[in-house]
Specification:
The protein has 399 residues and is α+β, with helices and mostly antiparallel strands. It has 14 helices and 12 strands. It has 2 domains: 62 residues, no CATH class; 261 residues, 3-Layer(aba) Sandwich (Beta-lactamase). Strands 1, 2, 3, 4, 10, 11 and 12 form a 7-stranded antiparallel beta sheet that branches. A hairpin with a 5-residue loop joins strand 10 and strand 11. Helix 1 packs antiparallel against helix 14. It starts with a strand and ends with a helix. It comes from Actinomadura rugatobispora. Keywords: Hydrolase.
Length: 399
C-alpha cells in the first residue's frame, strides 16, 4: 500500500482522496500534486516510487519530466519580451528573423508561432536527440522548410517544433541571446525548481518515466461512455487518435516522435541537458503550480498581457491531433486536449503534457494546480488522473 506524504488543507481533502485512490487502484507508480488557492499553498502531496528499477522512493523535492507543460513557460518568456517592446506579436516574423520568410512563410506572424498556426508541425527529415540539442541549427532548419499549410489558415499542434519556433523569439530578442531555459531562470523562475536544460545533479535525482501498456480498463470513464469534454456522437475519436499515434506516416506521429529522444526515451540525459523548449522541463509539482500562481497573481506578466494571451486565438479541429483543440498565445484553453471541469471551462488556461502531467491557472478562481506522474498514461488526448485532481480542486472552491 502506497503511503501518500505531504500536507493538505482539510478543505481540499478531496484532492488527497483522488490522489490516494489513483495509487490504490494501481494507476500510479510515483506522482506529486500541488494546489494554490487564493495565493496560498493548500495541497502539496507526493508518493510512490521515483525509479522502478531501483525502488527509489519519490520524495518532497523529486523533479519529474513535464513534457509539453514546458510550452507554457516558453510562451511566457516570449510574451514577456513582447510586453517589453522587443517585437510585435501580430507583426511579421521576418522583422526580426529575415531568413524565416523562405518558401511561402513571409506572411507568418509571431502570433502564428505561438498559437500552432505556423504550418511546421514536424521536421521534414529525421532529427536525432543530439542534433536537437543545437537550438539555432534546428530553428534555421525550420526557417528553410516549406510549411504544410498556409500559415494562419488553420492550426495543428506543433508538439516539438514549437520549441524551436517560439524559442527563437527568446534566443534572438532577449538581451544576451539567452536560451529559453536561461531566460526563464533569470527572469521569473529564480531559485524555483524549474529547469529547461537540467544540470546532472538534478537529472540524477529526477523521477524516471515508465511506460505502461494500454488495457481495456485503463482510465476509462466510470460507467463507460466518453471521456469528459468529448463531442457526442463520435465514439471512435480516441481510437482514431490511437491509430494516428502508431501510424508512422500520420501527422500526429511525425509531430510527436521527431526528434526522437533516443535510448532511454525522455529519461535520456542528452534530452534533459538540452532542455528542448517544447518538451524538456524537469520540475516539481509545487514549482510548476507556483509558476501558475505567480501568473494568476500578475507577478510575471502584466494583466493586459496575460488576458490577451489566454484569449482563444484558434479552436476547433486540430490538423495534427485530429481532435478539437484550443490555444491562446501558447496556452491551452479548455477543449478535448485540455479537459477542465465545468467550473473552469470559461477561465482556465495552462498546458498538458504527454503521459498525464498538467499545469493550470485560473484567474477568476484564483487557482493554480500542477500534477506530475512518472507512470505514463495511455489516454492520448488527456488523462483522467489529472482530470480527477482538477475536479476535486475546483470542487473545494464551491461553498
Amino acid at each position: 500500500m502506497t503511503t501518500v506524504e505531504g500536507t493538505c488543507d482539510p478543505a481540499f481533502s478531496g484532492v488527497r482522496d483522488v490522489f490516494e485512490r489513483n495509487f490504490a487502484e494501481g494507476r500510479e507508480l510515483g506522482a506529486a500534486v500541488a494546489v494554490y488557492a487564493g495565493g496560498r499553498k493548500v495541497v502539496d502531496l507526493w508518493g510512490g516510487v521515483a525509479d522502478r528499477r531501483t525502488g527509489r522512493a519519490w520524495e518532497a523535492g523529486t523533479p519529474c519530466f513535464a513534457f509539453s507543460c514546458t510550452k507554457a513557460l516558453t510562451a511566457t518568456a516570449a510574451l514577456l519580451l513582447a510586453e517589453r517592446g522587443a517585437y510585435d506579436v501580430d507583426g511579421p516574423v521576418t522583422d526580426w528573423w529575415p531568413e524565416y520568410g523562405a518558401r511561402g512563410k513571409e506572411g507568418t506572424t509571431a502570433a502564428h508561432l505561438l498559437s500552432h498556426q505556423a504550418g511546421l508541425p514536424a521536421f521534414a527529415r529525421s532529427v536525432s536527440a543530439e542534433e536537437a540539442a543545437d537550438a539555432p541549427a534546428r530553428a534555421a532548419e525550420l526557417a528553410g522548410q516549406e510549411p504544410e499549410w498556409t500559415p494562419g489558415e488553420g492550426h495543428g499542434y506543433h508538439a516539438l517544433t514549437y520549441g524551436w519556433l517560439a524559442g527563437e523569439i527568446v534566443r534572438r530578442l532577449s538581451p544576451g541571446n539567452r536560451t529559453v531555459g536561461e531566460f526563464v531562470r533569470d527572469e521569473f523562475a529564480g531559485d524555483r525548481d524549474l529547469w529547461i536544460g537540467s544540470p546532472d545533479d538534478v537529472i540524477e535525482r529526477a523521477a524516471k518515466l515508465t511506460a505502461r501498456r494500454p488495457t481495456a480498463s485503463s482510465d476509462a470513464p466510470a460507467g463507460g461512455g466518453t471521456t469528459p469534454g468529448a463531442p457526442s456522437g463520435d465514439d471512435n475519436i480516441l481510437s482514431r487518435l490511437a491509430n494516428a499515434y502508431t501510424d508512422p506516416g500520420s501527422g500526429f506521429n511525425r509531430a510527436i516522435n521527431n526528434p526522437h529522444p533516443g535510448k532511454g526515451g525522455y529519461n535520456n540525459p542528452v534530452v534533459l541537458r538540452a532542455g528542448w523548449p517544447a518538451a524538456g522541463m524537469l520540475t516539481t509539482a509545487p514549482a510548476l503550480a507556483g509558476f501558475y500562481r505567480d501568473l494568476v497573481a500578475e507577478r510575471i506578466l502584466r494583466p493586459e498581457t496575460l488576458h490577451e494571451a489566454i484569449k482563444p486565438r484558434v479552436s476547433g479541429p486540430d490538423r495534427t491531433m485530429l481532435v478539437d483543440s484550443a490555444f491562446g498565445l501558447g496556452y491551452m484553453r479548455p477543449a478535448m486536449t485540455f479537459f477542465v471541469p465545468a467550473a473552469g471551462r470559461e477561465s482556465a488556461f495552462g498546458h498538458t503534457g504527454a503521459g498525464g502531467s498538467i499545469g493550470l491557472g485560473d484567474i477568476e478562481a484564483d487557482l493554480a494546480v500542477a500534477y506530475l506522474p512518472n507512470l505514463m498514461g495511455d489516454q492520448l488526448s488527456g488523462d483522467l488522473r489529472a482530470y480527477g485532481v482538477l475536479e476535486a480542486a475546483y470542487g473545494a472552491l464551491t461553498p
